# Entry
Amino acid sequence: MPIRLRLTLWYLLILTIVLGAVAGGVYAFVGDQEQRSVDRILRERAEAFARAYAGEANEQESDAAVIEVARDFGRGEGDIFVYRADGNLLARSPQRVLRVADARSVADLRGAIDRAFAGTGSGVTVDAVRCIVAPVSGRGKRYVLVSTESLGGRRSALILIRNAFIIVIPAALVIAAIGGYFLAMRSLSPVAQITETASHIEAENLSDRIAVGNPSDELGRLAGVLNALLERLERSFQQQKQLLADTSHELRTPVTIIRTEADVTLSRERTAAEYRDALEGIRTEATHLTGLIEAVLLLARADAQQARVARQEFALSEVIQHSVQSLRTIAAAKQIDLACSTDGPMPMVGDPELIRRMLLNLLENGIKFTESGGRVRLDAHRAGPSYVVTVSDSGIGIPSEEQAKIFDRFFRSDSARTRDAHRSSASGAGLGLAIARWIAEVHGGDLRLLRSDRSGSVFQAMLPIQHERAMNGVA
# Structure
């Protein structure tokens, strides 16, 4: 069932309950006021009868005075019954309203008459007749007056009101249903527009956005949330497209080299040394290809928030020492002084393998861009709730116009376009620093370039000793 129809039905249900309650309240109120009006008339008639009797009783005998007064009051619209103390009917008016010869023949009136002789007046309703039973006394004698009034006028008014409600309420509900359905359509028209726009947004036009009429109301905020979602999807989609394009470009070169080496080697008979050289080249490219694929898969899992981050206690100083030791041979081959310093054991909670990869990427980057005879140094110390890891080198530096892009994926400085002997790492494809920054961020820290000029470059990583994201175990 459409929402606009459900809203209309709920609106009608609530309106029906409200109108029914109002109609019932009005009906009961009018009926009560009509009965109160009749009772007031009957009480005033009884009081007038008592005053008239008191006046006549001064001039003649009591029974005669009652009969005389009853004759005068009997000319009214209602009935008059007057009873003596012995219970006998003394006087009555012509039958107009209460179609009985004696009021005591009605059980309810008989009980009311007995209570009136005991001094308690009361009101009784018999069919469509309202009766007031009141004691009347004077000159030592007690009488009981029964005065009646038809309720036909009251019932006619109630029937008129009821018939009016029977006509007005359904008509009001029909009008309210039409108006409510129209208002629901008007109120939900932005939803239809959002649905129409969203249904046409595909991979080719993710840049389209939903029009926001009133950003402060609920539908405007919904449109804003959907636009933000589309923006994130577009950014993620563009990242995936860029990752795929860059990966395809990077994979093409090593695969081509491997195929060329194999084709050239197999084109004629070779010596054992030539076969060895060819296989060494193929192994180098295969190693680079493996590192590139692993780096791309790691970044893809990170984008999909599926990369697992271990949560375990380890000594950062040991990871630093092992990372430096792993690269000493490469540094020595280029005659580069590779050193490190730590601040004690430096215990922390996180993923030691990822931290090691971050350190290796930073150190490899420094060694790669440092000329022979230079130096690369890693220093680590504690600063409050975090460890500060600084990697500095005396390399060629990064041009100022390229420093803002060095953490972008597949970005390589012009000075690094030519592949060198260190192609075994993903950094040769421009992924090393991107992966290093992601590892720092997934541990709740940060990685940034502090300085880079002709004297070298300095990278600084901030690693919280224990961070919530690391404790959750998922990036």
